[in-house]
């Protein structure tokens, strides 16, 4: 389904950009990191737009579970952003990585296994 493809594409690209920004921050390339971080943020918006579209289209099938998927998606974005900001400031990121992995696995499970809309 078209929007699902768009949604998957946006979060896959966002996560790739996230790792590039992370590597640049860690490598001390502050300027490069800042640019890639900004583009990553643009992709957060695209994830939310495509996710919201799917949400409004399909949520009647199971509003509670779709609500959890929506919240989970927003939490993932929150964790990605927290990790980048903490790395930029040279602070610890351990807790945010753990939460990111938990929320990410939950999103894959909900999106691909539990919720009805399929590719
Ligand atoms: C980085 C963050 C996110 C990840 C990794 C993610 C992951 C996924 C995955 C794996 C699917 C299943 C695609 C499929 O059914 O083929 C999906 C579907 C969906 N996502 Fe996200 N998502 C994210 C953010 C969001 C956000 C922010 C929203 C809401 C604003 C959202 C709402 C939805 C909805 C409504 C579906 C359709 C579920 C279904 O019926 O299968 N997602 N997402």
Short description:
The protein has 119 residues and is an all-alpha fold.
Would you kindly provide a written description of the structure presented here, covering whatever features stand out?
- The protein has one domain (4-114).
- It is mostly helical.
- It has four helices and no strands.
- Helix content is 85%, strand content 0%.
- The longest helix is centred in the middle third of the chain and has 29 residues, at 30-58.
- The radius of gyration is 15 Å and the shape is elongated.
- α1 runs parallel beside α3 (63-88).
Q: Which tags fit this structure?
A:
119 residues; binds protoporphyrin IX containing FE
Question: SSE layout and pairings?
Answer:
Blueprint: H1 2-26, H2 30-58, H3 63-88, H4 94-114
Bound molecules: protoporphyrin IX containing FE (HEM).
Averaging pLDDT over every residue, what do you get?
A: 94
Query: How far is the N terminus from the C terminus?
Result: 5 Å
Envelope shape: elongated
Main sheet, how many strands, which sense, barrel?
A: none
Bound molecules: protoporphyrin IX containing FE
Oligomer: single chain
Name the structural class: mainly alpha
Number of alpha- plus pi-helical segments? 4
Low-pLDDT runs of 5+ residues are none
Question: What's the β-strand tally?
Answer: 0
**Which bin fits the share of residues in helices?**
over 70%
Order of helices and strands: HHHH
C-alpha Rg (nearest Å): 15 Å
Strand percentage, roughly?
Answer: under 5%
């Amino acid at each position: 389904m078209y929007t699902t493809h768009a949604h998957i594409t946006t979060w896959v690209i966002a996560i790739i950009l996230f790792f590039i920004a992370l590597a640049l921050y860690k490598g001390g390339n502050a300027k490069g990191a800042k640019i890639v971080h900004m583009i990553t943020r643009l992709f957060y918006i695209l994830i939310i737009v495509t996710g919201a579209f799917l949400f409004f289209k399909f949520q009647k099938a199971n509003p509670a579970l779709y609500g959890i998927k929506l919240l989970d998606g927003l939490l993932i974005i929150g964790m990605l952003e927290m990790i980048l900001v903490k790395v930029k400031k040279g602070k610890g990121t351990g807790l945010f990585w753990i939460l990111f992995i938990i929320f990410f696995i939950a999103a894959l499970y909900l999106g691909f296994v539990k919720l009805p809309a399929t590719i």
